[in-house]
């Protein structure tokens, strides 16, 4: 059982690596952790395009916050 | 669902570090993210990983022109596909791809959220926009060309007219109403169509493609106004034909459907407009609007079906303007052969509807013989004068049939007009009104069926039969356009029954055959004993001038002749109709010239025996009667000569003359006998046989019967009267024959004179001998010289008439030999049997040669 679990884990790891490579290739700027989260969400049925929109949105949020925060801090 | 929430939360935390401290921001972002996730962005894509891979490769080759990265991607992808872990590799890939493509804003989005291109005036594509405080012109978001153009327009001060305004106008246009920005302008020239004009608005411009689109759409509106105008026009007008009414009805139902469509479109438009104005923040709804809302292009798609339909309807409307009734049906039928199944289907439906009144009329026509066609749309037209006459004529016919034997002449001639004319002219067949799907031959059949029924009903007083038939036929179901074969069957059936019945009525109820036979017996002198008897009794009085003859005497003589011949066995109804009268005579004519027999017919028999044929019968009678007279005269003369031969021997020096006379008389008798035999055996009996065969078969309708009788009569007239087909010289031979008859009569008269002379001469000689013997007799006047004086002119006349007969007979024989008709030619051969006349002619010529 443990061996099978290990197999599964390694396979998951491999898949994640592959996806990460592709992600790198496409220049999505996602780190492995976020990618794993996203893939798990997609696996559980999330709409991939919507998810992409979410990521975009959150990034934009971050940049806006970053832009605001120096002004606030000043 | 909590797991999604949690993962989302972790995502938010990792991506936006600030949320780790700011709880409210985190919650807000998470909620927003869930909203996005639940939205319908980019759903319903095909899940073809190959296609996606292609997209990715294209993207990669765009970003890095060297093929290395794309190759690497292919490699990675194949390895990924080998991995068993992920169940939604496609989705994952799609996620990455969309992320990559949207993170590079300068590239145009490959997946447009809506199939239709976005209307130019829509504020922004991005669903994030409403809640996003950033303006459109934010640097990270690049601008599409359309955006640039729009901005340019805004700068120039004349932005494009918002589509929803145009949409509203277009919907108005579809209903034939002018809108605010686009309107219909009636052309100055009334022949031309209305035009579409775009109102110039200083604030807005309408782009050219949109204009042409609206132009296309407005065609439907234009057609609609035309169709609607017709329907309106016909609605209010009196005297619109049934077929047109049903066309209008059909158009009306079609228009109702059209209204329904317009209403749906309008509600669509309303729903597409409302969210924009009501709730600008609900971006998700905006996205659905893009899916379901109404745009000009979508409208075009929606309407395209109707455009065809409207065109068809409009074509029908155009046709309805100058076509009428059956012709209109024909026009529509012309479209059923269209190759386009849509058009064909539409026309079939239309025809089914439009032809309903036609079939209703047809039903009444072929099953009850009634023409119910208030707007004269059926292909059978009634003559308005005769339509009324059917009742009058039949009523009158009945009367004169009962007691009209001695009725006034006026009444009878008035009656005579009925019959055939009623049958032939009461209903007319109008070819241009005949629907094409029926076919001409069939139309004739229908026409004949109805006519027969009508005739049976009104002219033959047999309406009970028609009514029962109608009831029987009604159970058979209705006639329809879609059931042409059934229609043909039922028409065939009805036709057969109707003609059969009409035949039966004529032959059994009205005893047509009896009448025809009577005509043959009396007018064509078929009853020899009757004719002889009549001639015997009438002879003396006919020799008198015509103005001393009286009708009552004639009829009385006729009665006697009937009583004393086998004619008395004929039915009373037939004898009752027989009448003797005089033709109109002029001064100097004698009874022989004007006497005629007459046979009276009344309705409905006079349909077959119409006045024209009666005239022909009279003509035939006249000729045959003359022939009979000549024959009788010759017979009597021969008998007299044969009987008197004893007395001639008292005058032996005239024996040679008598011989000559007998030779000529024998020639005459031969001539007249051949002539009679020809007329009776070869012409009349043969023609009668043909007619009898036809009647026996009982085929065809009344028209065929009339035709058969007519050809029977024509054949007789042509052959008995030896009419030649040459125009202008038809009666040449007939006139010659008549002259010949006259010559024979004159000859007979001359021989009578000669006979009388001989008689008196022999009496004189007897007296002489008596005185020689010393017997006293009272006979003393009439001395030799005077009697010899009288002899020369008599002999001269006899010779002259004999020669002229021979000449005429020769001419007739010659004429007959070159006659077009074979029977007549044979007559010529019989008359000049063994080339009698030719050798005679040759002898004559030789003689004249010798003399000269």
Automatic annotation (TrEMBL), chain A:
Keyword Transmembrane: no
GO biological process: gamma-tubulin complex localization; microtubule nucleation by interphase microtubule organizing center; mitotic spindle assembly
GO cellular component: gamma-tubulin ring complex; interphase microtubule organizing center; mitotic spindle pole body; spindle
Location(s), subcellular: Cytoplasm, Cytoskeleton, Microtubule organizing center
Key words, A-Z: Cytoplasm, Cytoskeleton
Free-text function comment from the UniProt entry: Required for gamma-tubulin complex recruitment to the microtubule organizing center (MTOC).
Family affiliation: Belongs to the MOZART1 family.
Protein name: Mitotic-spindle organizing protein 1
UniProtKB/TrEMBL annotation, chain B:
Example GO BP: cytoplasmic microtubule organization
Family of the protein in this entry: Belongs to the TUBGCP family.
Name of protein: Uncharacterized protein
Pfam families: GCP_C_terminal, GCP_N_terminal
Domain Gamma tubulin complex component protein N-terminal: 167-509
KW Cytoplasm (keyword) present: yes
PANTHER family: GAMMA TUBULIN COMPLEX PROTEIN, GAMMA-TUBULIN COMPLEX COMPONENT 3
Subcellular location: Cytoplasm, Cytoskeleton
Gene3D superfamilies the UniProt entry points to: Gamma-tubulin complex, C-terminal domain (1.20.120.1900)
Domain of life: Eukaryota
First-listed, main subcellular location of the protein, grouped into a coarse class: cytoplasm
Keyword tags: Cytoplasm, Cytoskeleton, Microtubule
A GO CC term assigned to this protein in UniProt: microtubule
Disordered as annotated region, ranges: 107-144
Species this protein is from: Jaapia argillacea MUCL 33604
GO molecular function list: gamma-tubulin binding; microtubule minus-end binding
Limits of the Gamma tubulin complex component C-terminal domain: 512-837
